[in-house]
């Protein structure tokens, strides 16, 4: 994938960020503009937060592991434990 493809995949994922966050983390809850969960394992809690809107949409932080990043592709890679190239391909296939 080239840079334009990466940007397109990232933008498409951000357009569905709340739906994807709820699908990936059904035990999470929305608090303001963040989706809150316990960790990348998906348990209920508030140690991991994903920004759902605004300029920071897609930025996430797992406070329990002190991991953070600024894009939704890296979030997919983090929670599914795959390389970012695989995450981009998987997100490109998301409905």
TrEMBL record:
It comes from the Bacteria. It comes from Solimicrobium silvestre. This is Uncharacterized protein.
């Amino acid at each position: 994938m080239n840079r334009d493809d990466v940007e397109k995949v990232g933008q498409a994922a951000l357009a569905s960020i709340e739906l994807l966050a709820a699908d990936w983390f059904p035990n999470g809850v929305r608090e303001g503009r963040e989706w809150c969960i316990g960790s990348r394992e998906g348990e209920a809690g508030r140690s991991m937060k994903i920004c759902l809107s605004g300029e920071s949409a897609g930025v996430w932080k797992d406070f329990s592991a002190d991991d953070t990043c600024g894009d939704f592709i890296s979030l997919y890679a983090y929670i599914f434990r795959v390389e970012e190239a695989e995450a981009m391909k998987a997100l490109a296939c998301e409905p």
